[in-house]
Amino acid sequence: MPFSIPAAATRIAFAAVVAAAVFGTGAAMAQQPSPAQEREAMQACRADYEALCKGVEPGGGRIIACLEQHAEKVSPGCKQALMSLKPK
């Protein structure tokens, strides 16, 4: 089923926010996650984002901060996906 442009744009923005918040800038740039890893994290965290952080404006690490504030409620799959994005 094709995604509407707003839904696709939201997903892209969400993935970019996750990547930027996890990695920041500088040295971490060399260890950025692959597009497949970003898609996996986005899929794993989508329900958590919708349930816990829906009203949070993307950008500036706000979505990651929201998910971290609700760490006790975030699904195990989302936690694992976010951890896999962090530099080793």
Mind sketching the topology for me?
Elements: H1 5-23, H2 35-52, H3 62-69, H4 76-85
Helix pairs in contact: 1-2, 1-3, 2-4
- Helix tally equals 4
How far apart the termini lie comes to 36 Å
Category by helix and strand content: mainly alpha
What integer value in Å does the Rg equal? Answer: 12 Å
Task: Return residue spans where pLDDT drops below 50 for at least 5 consecutive residues.
Answer: none
Look at the structure and give the mean pLDDT.
76
Please tally the β strands and state the result. Answer: 0
Largest sheet: none
C-alpha geometry:
globular
Q: Helical proportion? A: 55-70%
Strand content range: under 5%
Order of helices and strands: HHHH
Can you walk through the features of this model?
This protein has helices at residues 5-23, 35-52, 62-69, 76-85. With 88 residues, it is an all-alpha fold. The longest helix has 19 residues, at 5-23. The model has no long low-confidence stretch (mean pLDDT 76).
